[in-house]
Amino acid sequence: MLGKLSLSAIPLHDAIIMGAVYGSLVLAVIIIALLTWFRKWSFLWNEWLTSLDHKKIGIMYMILASIMLLRGFSDAMLMRSQQALAAGANPGFLQPPHFDQIFGSHGTIMIVFVLMPFLVGLMNIIIPQQIGARDVAFPLMNSISLGLTIAGAFLVMISLGVGQFTTAGWSGIAPLFEKQFNPSTGVDYWMWAIQISGVGSTLTAINFLVTIIKMRAPGLTFMRLPLFVWTALTTNVLIVLSFPVLTAALFLLTLDRYLGMHFYTNDLGGNMMLWNNLFWMWGHPEVYILILPAFGVFSEVVATFSRKKLFGYKSLVYATVAIMFLSFTVWLHHFFTMGNTPAVNVFFSITTMLIAIPTGVKVYDWLFTMYRGRITFSVPMYWTMGFLTIFVLGGMTGVLLSIPPADFVFHNSVFLIAHFHNMLIPGALFGYFAGIQYWFPKAYGFRLDEKWGKRAFWGWFIGFLLAFIPLYILGFMGMPRRLSHYYNLEWQPLLIVALAGAVMILFGILCLIIQFIVSIKNRKANVDVTGDPWNGRTLEWATSSPPAEYNFAIIPNVHTLDEFWDRKERGIAYQRPEKYHDIRMPKNRPHGVIICALALTFGFAMVWYIWWLAALSIAGIIGTVIISAVTNETEYVIPAHEVQRIEEERFRALAAAQDSGNI
Amino acid sequence: MKKHNSYALLKTFSLFFSAFILAGCSEMVVFQPKGPVARDEALLIATAFGLMLIVVIPVLVMAIGFAIRYRASNEKAAYRPNWANSIKIELVVWLVPVVIVAVLSYLTWTGTFRLDPYKPIPAEAEPLRVEVVSLDWNWLFIYPDYNIATVNELVLPAHTPLDFRLTSATVMTSFYVPQLGSQMYAMAGMQTQLHLLADHTGTFDGQNREFSGNGYATMHFKAIVKTPEQFQVWVHNARQSPETLSMAAYKALSEPNSNHPVTVYSPVVAGLFDDIVGQFTGWMGADETMKSRMQPQEKMHN
Questions:
Q1: pLDDT tens, B156-190?
Q2: Measured between CB atoms, which of B97, B115, B184 is closest to A361?
Q3: A490 pLDDT exceeds 90?
Q4: How far is the C-alpha of B41 from the C-alpha of B16, rounded, in Å?
């Protein structure tokens, strides 16, 4: 009846795991109790969970990413502590099977359930507003994507307390992840969590591709798109083309593990390198999926805070598109050491180096945007400066790793770890932090506290250098990655420095949390009445903060790049339209929540071989999709007089702000 | 001729650079090569590093310089809000990276062919053949020319080309002795090759670089490089070893275990390496009866 599931699946004997389990449970109980006490269940259901408003869906993605960041970072702290201790005779506090789960869950969570939701969340909040649209192309699908992502994240969290997580790394190490070597539930949790959320990501990308291509405001030609929209467009192309490869590769692994087939096994014609090829055909574009939109954020931030046009807009667009194409031609550099011919290695090496050219151009274009500008150092600009200074180091070590004979030395060493953290922390995460700080007033209507924001930045900036420069040096000292214990005592001092770096990052995270609390407390003082707190350049700043549900009462006509800046220059930024019209908006629908619950059930049932439940939940998902498709009444009308009432209120607020000199 | 000169110049520069790093940290094994492969790789790394500084240093200088000069409070600095295009600057920022990547590509192209791990290393001495098998979680080294095998210790003669064949009896691993250079995957049912040479004697750390499960952290070994004469003495002693590596002994050894004590075996059951590769390659897979040295082997390389 319950497949492999029994009470013995709960690791009651392990103090560290059970501590985390009880912690999560207590937190869940507190949240449920608070919701019940304040009678907020129907509010949560009507205003958030079933809402198809892209801004609210975006905020829910951000909340998911923030929570998972805490989980992923706890994993990092455990690994850093273990490696700082476990030298020579000291075994540390984590035994290999536990340590091995932690590096797998750290990677999986940070890539799939932190960076991806941050990226999709930002796109959701900003893209429709930047292109002058009222919502995304498929609002219900958007909600379903969110549901699938949350289901995947839940599955990873459940693996903490019921069964275990994979010991075969976040990237799946073939053939170690085969049933022969890894019979427990760990690999299945990993596989289904990525598979389910991956389907969500594919749907998201289809949604945003259609949104960006079909729903741009009149006059907003491609060469007038803000850079964030351009980078989002290329990222979505990458997702649409690369995620199906991951889906197929994971499906083959499913066949191996569930039906005894031999795609990646040692014997019967299986080949572990097939997995490596397929995985990195997704995995390398995935890096650019995460980094490109962050480049978009930096482009917006650097122009706004330099109070200057973006330097070399066309160059930046072409560079972005070039990176998009090139990112599909480099996957083999993840396994130069498999014994292929030098000719093959050279090809993939040079394609990899080519990516450095457009990336270098971008960096210079941002620098020349600052040149002869009037730079205000607000928090988003801090993150951008942090990125510009550290990212080049990662670019340099990346090119170094792309040289096959150098990779023969550094492959699978902690040098590689330092390199890709150098790409993903300053390159992607700093970008999303900059984006959060920059667009927070737009999403919530008040600014974030500057003082704590800057403290958080310094925590992350110094912490990053302290944590990862030692790993670069340790790479030269020959330290392999993923070691739960080591005998070379010369590595220990640097690993202790790296732990200190992780503690600095913890300080940065605490400052971020304090920043949110302080800002919410002082929200009256930091309120953004104009909707344009940074003297912005692009269309999203033309709406109120937070925007009305329909974003734009009248869809704007776009005449130039930096349309809103242009309107402010010409003094027509805040004009009353002659007439308002009825606006049709999507109704709330519960299908996203239902599919989230069913997908989670399906994943859990598959992990534990509860076949009847798996069949039932997959039938439920199909049924829900069919029902959602045959519903006719999916929109409701906001009448023109109601639109007028909302807009008049905004103009009154604007006038008041003008009188008090806020504009 | 001129090209050759500039390359020599680069070499001198990168030597200085690596010497600079060496002085700072004496444990940097990458910059303490004990063979031509590792030395060439270290040099390539240092050269590429130096070349890339041409792009990186201006970025750092400009980032900090522009941030200070064009801060909002500095009213004296020029302010050109609508200046956003300059063909000259665009040319420079596209062309400089293009040139550097072109130079790096040239270095990579020549370096990759020169340092192809499958290419035998020319030397006067006869090459020594070593067959490397990764087990859960120990290293087995077979010397087919001497009918010797060792576990978790690799004894090598200096100044002799080393001709490794690698495979795995279990999951994928990566064989690497940092001070000799070039790691190489070992994969079940396949054989890979690696050619190295040691020109210094000494004891060097060897390791597995590909995570392989529970005992991964223990999967390291010592590579002991002796003079050719000392090596012959070692061979002579090793052949007197009381331990023999029969099929049964191999089976026991290949059961999952960690930190197997260093052991020398002689003699070794004939064709063991090929049998280990062959056990995965037959149509019926791991079927014992199909295991034969006559089976064709899959080769990654031709």
A1: 999 999 999 999 999 999 999 999 999 999 999 99
A2: B97
A3: yes
A4: 15
Between the alpha carbon of residue A361 and those of residues A242, A306, A353, the distances in Å are: 25, 19, 13
SS3 B53: helix
pLDDT per residue over A526-583, tens digit each? Answer: 898 889 999 999 999 999 999 999 999 999 999 999 999 999 999 998 888 989 999 9
Cβ neighbours for A154, distance < 8 A, ≥ 6 positions apart:
A600
A349 in Cβ contact with A404 (< 8 Å): yes
Alpha helices (H) along A45-138: 54-85, 96-108, 116-130
| A31 within domain boundaries | no
The 3-state DSSP class for residue B91 equals: helix
Residue B3 has pLDDT above 50, yes or no: no
* Digit-coded pLDDT (tens) for B233-247: 999 999 999 999 999
Question: Is A173 inside any structural domain?
Answer: yes
User: What is the reported pLDDT for A358?
Assistant: 96
Distance CA B121, CA B119 (A): 6
Are A315 and B213 inside 8 Å of each other by CB? no
Q: Which of B44, B109, B284 sits opposite A346 (nearest CB)?
A: B109
Q: Is residue A35 part of a domain?
A: no
Count CA within 13 A, CB hemisphere, residue B172.
Answer: 30
The answer to whether the CB of B157 falls within 8 A of the CB of B197 is no
d(CA A152, CA A165): 13
> Would you say residue A655 lies in a domain?
yes
**Chain B nearest CA to A369, separation (Å):** 7
Residues A155-169, mean pLDDT to the nearest whole number: 93
Number of folded domains that form chain A:
1
Q: Coil, strand or helix: which one is B73?
A: coil
Instruction: Give tens-digit pLDDT for A222-232.
Output: 999 999 999 99
H or E element, residue A629: helix A611-629
Rounded CA separation A472/A414 (Å):
7
Bridge partners for A88 per DSSP: none
Domains of chain B: 2-114 (no CATH), 128-299 (2.60.40.420)
Q: Which candidate, A566, A496, A572, A570, places its Cα nearest to that of A536?
A: A566
Torsion A589-A591-A593-A594 (CA) sign = positive
User: For residue A650, which amino acid is it?
Assistant: R
Domain harbouring A350, CATH code: 1.20.210.10
pTM of this prediction?
Answer: 0.93
Q: What range does the domain containing A45 cover? A: 40-589+632-659
CA nearest to B29 within chain A: A477
**Spatial distance between the Cα atoms of A77 and A79, rounded to a whole number of angstroms:** 5
pLDDT at A371 over 50: yes
The complex's ipTM?
Answer: 0.93
What is the spatial distance between Cα A299 and Cα A226, in angstroms, rounded to a whole number? Answer: 9
Q: What pLDDT is recorded for position A269?
A: 87
Nearest to A369 by CA among B96, B88, B89: B89
**Cβ neighbours of A272 in B, within 8 Å:** 172, 187-188
> Which residues in A lie closer than 8 A to residue B117 (C-beta atoms)?
339, 408
Report the pLDDT averaged over residues A263-286.
94
